[in-house]
Amino acid sequence: MAKRLDLKDVDIYYGKFHAVAGVTLSVPPRSITAFIGPSGCGKSTVLRTLNRMHEVIPGATVDGQVLLDGEDIYATSVDPVSVRRTIGMVFQRPNPFPTMSIRDNVVAGLKLMGVSDKKKLDELAERSLRGANLWNEVKDRLDKPGGGISGGQQQRLCIARAIAVQPDVLLMDEPCSALDPISTLAIEDLMSELKKEYTIVIVTHNMQQAARVSDQTGFFNLRATGEPGKLVEIDDTEKMFSKPSEKATEDYISGRFG
Amino acid sequence: MTATIDAPATGPTFMQVSGARKVKDRIATVLVYLSFAVAVIPLVWVVYTVLVRGLGATLSATWFTESLSGLLGRDPGGGAYHAILGTLLQGVVCAIISVPIGIMVGIYLVEYGGNSRLAKTTTFMVDILTGVPSIVAALFVYAVWIAIFGLPRSAFAVSLALVLLMVPVVVRTTEELLKIVPTDLREASYALGIPKWRTITKVVIPTALSGILTGVMLALARVMGETAPVLLLVAYAPFINTNIFEGNMASLPLMMYVERNNPTAAGTDRIWGAAVTLILIIALFNVLATVLSKYFAVKTK
Amino acid sequence: MNDPAVSGTSTGTGLTSAGRGLPDEPNVPEAGAKVPESPQPPAGNTTGTATFTQRGDKIFKAMAVGSGGFIVFLIGAIGLFLLIQALPPLLSNQVNFLTSREFQVSDPADLRFGILDLLLVTIEVSLFALVLAMPTALGIALFLTQYAPPRFARPLAYIVDLLAAVPSIVYGLWGLLVLAPAIAPLAVWLQSNLGFIFVFAEGTAKAEFGSTLFTAGIVLAVMILPIITAITREVFSQTPRTLIEGALALGATRLEVIRYAVFPFGKSGYISASMLGLGRALGETIALTIIVAAVAANFAGSLFSGGASFASKIALAANEFSNPTLTGAYIAAGLMLFVLTFAVNALARTIIARSGAQA
Lengths: 258, 301, 359
Description:
The structure holds three protein chains of three kinds.
Chain A: E1 5-14, E2 17-27, E3 32-36, H1 43-49, E4 60-68, E5 71-72, H2 80-86, E6 87-90, H3 102-111, H4 118-131, H5 135-138, H6 151-164, E7 169-173, H7 181-194, E8 199-203, H8 207-213, E9 216-221, E10 229-236, H9 237-242, H10 247-253
Parallel strand pairs in A: 2-10, 3-8, 3-9, 6-7, 7-8
Antiparallel strand pairs in A: 1-2, 1-4, 4-5, 9-10
Chain B: H1 3-6, H2 19-58, H3 81-113, H4 117-131, H5 134-148, H6 155-179, H7 183-191, H8 196-224, H9 228-233, H10 252-259, H11 265-296
Helix pairs in contact in B: 2-11, 3-4, 3-6, 3-8, 3-10, 4-6, 5-6, 6-8, 7-8, 8-11, 10-11
Chain C: H1 15-20, H2 46-91, E1 103-104, E2 112-113, H3 116-147, H4 150-162, H5 168-194, H6 213-237, H7 241-249, H8 254-283, H9 286-291, H10 310-316, H11 324-355
Antiparallel strand pairs in C: 1-2
Helix pairs in contact in C: 2-11, 3-4, 3-6, 3-8, 4-6, 5-6, 6-8, 7-8, 8-11, 10-11
């Protein structure tokens, strides 16, 4: 049930620090949107506001609207916890729960919310692990600790865990930056498959990756340290990498800075 | 360039360390090694004393199975079962109260407190509580439980005093261990839509559990050896009593303290036998701490 | 963990009914849970989820914050309740509480109790223990962090920590029955050769019998040694590598590295560790009660004296806690001990906090 995301004039603050200013963009369903830009430009910060994860950091606030299929996820009646169940997230470093088995890691989202039907959970674990292209590699050791597999497998385990709660949107924060090239390839293949069912937003430092996997690309930049980061432009990936409208984008993509 | 110019520049390859500096360094080394020896001597000496004087008593057939009920001061035989039971009972009741409070305070400080005024005050007060002498803790319980509420002396009053001594240790341990649980794990859990309290109880605490259990066992071992609270808050009984709210109850420290007034050979046996038993229990809890920490440790294989 | 948040709150499907079926242990499959047909995410149904999570979160947070507040309240309550119990006897005290050396509480109509002697004994024996323990602890901490091969440092540190695991009553018995006779010759020698210094002068107990503050001080030193060592070791081990390597590169000997890099870095940690040790010594009860002889004469400053500290005075009277006024007098003494240890500990913690080291 992929849904669309719309950001309208989003401003993000950490206490008094204005981190990101005036972001407006749309993420169509069943597509991959990549955020690129130099370090500290706020692309990860924007990503974290899409499922209210930034609220975990004390003092972080947001102005403007983030709409999921037209519903404001920051409306007062909306519980951040339910937002995060609808909009899943995969992090930079694989972070399986070390105390849980592979199987329990996958179903953690539902199990910790009280679902306890073992058959249902087993089915779900298999479905999610297959969805994350991990089933064949771990099916014989589902009861082994989640921390005992390779980094690339751990990251796919985290993806399986995120899709197990059947979110509408999947956010990925540099999901391959801690992985070797082969694992990266596996994840990229997986993303193209996941696109059929989910709306995906990915932050990446790797421009080739953005060019390879994404349908549209947004470029973030900031003028100087201390100033808020801004969305310079967002467009179809093909256009962004061939003839971007902004000079800054071209400079960045052609490797002149950043 | 002539040889005469080069000559003065050629000194010894390595400058010698002056004699005085060398001697000072040697003396310091000797003193430092000596001070470590000074620490080991009393430990070995105490353990040796206790074992030599007390092991005989504990090897008797009835030591771990019988109380001193019905025996006179000079009668040999009997055992420390009543005191062992009392010590464990008081310790366990204390742990049942301290562990939840201590862990919750630790959770508060790490997961909720942040830099708030209450959090800072709490940290400070936990530090102060760590330093409260056991006799003051006992007096406080006496003042509230016995003097104001008018309740009788009992093993439960002892447990309450021990709680005051154990809580700060549990808080400290929990705090230290929760701090090293990676933020990644909390975020992973939040991102799955798991609420904060579930995240804490199901993800954060299990990750830190092994260390917390170790800390709890060590703290428990420590408070079970306390004498001041039992002295003030419960009277000695040479027989078995399992009612923590009423009546006299023995414990190993109290048995040692009371039997000091017994000048007979049986009394001496009881004192040192109890000492061996107490140290044995403390050692057992230390070993248990290690075993538990291994068992609950986060596994990767 | 019982979970009141989920009991009978919500209507609806999906997550909500899953949440409702979570009475005790969600990991047990047969927990009587009403599992939804398929574990679908909440979708449009956010109200049920909100109730589940927000109430659970609120209750759990309240418990955590309450526990924190409870600790703060507890310290206040200790001071307050001791004061409440101590006030009546203090008001009917016939002598000055702070400056009198008498402690006569057998006649409730004629209470005469002062803490001067207790205070002096407590402080002298604790300081004596500190004087012995401080350099030793420093040596041990340096040994463990700078001299011992890293492979052995941990087990050796564990041995020192074991000193703290021995109960104080065992130390007391050992001190009186084993240590005292063994050090009697030293005590006698000190008294006859250094007797002109007031601490070694003839006191109210016989040096050769060993039931003196001298013996007690040595035992106390052993007891506070692991406390001081543990923290000092911790601070020293945090000396930045660069400081040490900088000194070594200048050709410093090991002693010089310690003097110019390790010690300056860890000095405040060492001092506050010593103060925590002092706090422990001030409040130590049973070892003193057992070792030091009770005497009637006033304390004149010699270590070869009997007497009682705050803590041992209270412990010795424990069996006579019968009427509230009598008990109140001892509680007043306990209150003074509380104030004393509070001050010493607070000072130590302030130093640690200022130096930024972890204790």
